Amino acid sequence: MSRSAARELDLQGYRDSAAHRLDPRAKLVATAVFLVCVVSFPKREVLGLVPYLALPLAMGALGRVGFRPVARLVLAASPFAVLAAAANPFLDRQPAAVILGVAVSGGVLSFASVVLRYVLCSSALLVVVAVTTVPGIVRALGRLGLPRPLGAQLMMLHRYLFLLEDEGERLSRARALREPLRKRATLGTARRMLSSLLWRSFERGDRVYQCMKVRGFDGSFPALSPGAFRTSDAVFLVGVSTACVALRTLALRVAS
Amino acid sequence: MSVLSVEGVSYRYPDGTEALRGVSFDIEDGACVGLVGPNGAGKTTLVSVLAGFFEPSAGSVAVGGVRMGASTLAEVRARVGFVFADPDDQLFMPTVLEDVCFGPLAGGASPEEAKGRALELLNALGIGALASKFPGHLSAGQKRLATLAGVLVQSPRLLVLDEPTAFLDPFARRDTLSRLKGLSQARLLVTHDLEAVVELCSLVLLLDEGRVVARGTPASVLGDVALMSAHRLERPHILSHGHPHS
């Protein structure tokens, strides 16, 4: 399910919109500020986090990012966040707040806080990918000081993930055509398909690498034009960062 | 003058399979040579040797007088443009323009120069409007032209085209062939598309079991029914009627 959503999201990065045209560095730094603000809240905070939903929503609307692929990817990884906080309601049963006349324990609040933070952080990152492209992000990271070999590895990882997906889809289609009466592969078939997938992906990856080598690949992905950091990028960066910090400061004051 | 000189090249795979046995041929400047043969004849292995992926167990390869070796590999590769069978393997940059610019940028060209050359070439190939597109969104014919642009932009002296008409519909195939016909570079066309060989090539090499078993004009080699049949190939229709099958 999340596989095609990832591809869809990746392709959205190649659209053109005001959000897409922003310098990737501005988007990355603004997102980093957003993430720091979100994770810096106390563990039981819920209400103070809600206004932060506005950033991914506004960015998504500006970049005309489809809601479905983002939601599907957020949902796909959500079991990890839910599991991480699942024990909280049982470990911390002390009433911490009264909501609509009902006493709510600290554990329930911290559970809700973890899940909300997960939704905020993952959706913000996914929206940035959808309005920037992964290669654009890697290049921006490079210009922000990421070592070149690491950047090249990220680019390769991105390319090979989709190769793996392509090969997996072909294998899956081949199995479905030859086992029309069986909806899912048996464990034995799945095991053999997995080993075949790894081998085929390795071979395909090798072919791609060879194509790159003959065209002069030396470990780096040269950028065509670095692009200048414009006033609109600075306005976006300062605006988003200020809003994030202001919301955090406001929450601090309310708490005190 | 020979652009490509292959002298007694042999290659044995690690499992002992002898894929090439003393292959020799030359390609003159501007000539188009077809390399044909049944499956398993050694064509892909020969392309891999020419690209420097495999080191021959005997013999030598020279491009433009430079003998291929570990120390000259980069220099040799810069003189040869490889178009591989599956364009999806070859297009690896985020946009068509960036992909075409990859070679010149990797070779040290400035971004402005690379962009200028790439756009000029994309326009010449009729796909200038696709410059900002994600390669994965192109049709098979457009992908083929984009890969061609990616190698032509480096001004190679020799083009090695591995199944350049694979995956193409008849119209895209015809378009690709007419563009290949108009190129001035020496070309080695490795293919099962024998009609394309008749249309483009002045010399044909028939490879089987790792050996060049016949060489000559397309009419003399591909028109020899007994020879073709002996090597699991068929005489192309175009030689019988003077026009492609339709």
Fill in the keyword field for this structure:
heterodimer; A: 256 residues; mainly alpha; two-stranded antiparallel sheet; 4% strand; B: 246 residues; alpha/beta; Rossmann fold; six-stranded mixed β-sheet; four-stranded antiparallel β-sheet; 11 helices; 10 strands; 37% helix; globular
Summarize the topology.
The complex is a heterodimer of chains A (256) and B (246).
Chain A lengths: L1 H11 L5 H4 L2 H16 L14 H9 L4 H19 L2 H4 L3 E5 L2 E4 H25 L3 H10 L4 H31 L8 H28 L16 H25 L1
Antiparallel strand pairs in A: 1-2
Chain B lengths: L1 E11 L5 E11 L3 E5 L6 H8 L7 E6 L2 E2 L5 H7 E4 L3 H4 L5 H11 L4 H14 L15 H13 L5 E5 L7 H12 L4 E5 L3 H7 L2 E6 L2 E6 L1 H5 L2 H6 L6 H5 L5
Helix pairs in contact in B: 4-5, 4-6, 6-7
Describe the 3D structure.
The complex is a heterodimer of chains A (256) and B (246). Chain A has 256 residues and is mainly alpha-helical. Chain A has 2 domains: 2-143 and 226-255, no CATH class; 150-214, no CATH class. Chain A is 71% helix and 4% strand. Chain A has helices at residues 2-12, 18-21, 24-39, 54-62, 67-85, 88-91, 106-130, 134-143, 148-178, 187-214, 231-255, and strands spanning 95-99, 102-105. In chain A, strands 1-2 form a two-stranded antiparallel ribbon. The radius of gyration of chain A is 22 Å and the shape is flat. Chain B is built from 11 helices and 10 strands. Chain B is α/β, with parallel strands linked by helices and 246 residues long. Chain B has a domain at 2-87 and 156-241: Rossmann fold (3-Layer(aba) Sandwich). The longest helix of chain B has 14 residues, at 111-124. Chain B has a 6-stranded mixed β-sheet, with helices on both faces. Chains A and B meet through helix 10 of A and helix 2, helix 3, helix 4 and helix 5 of B.
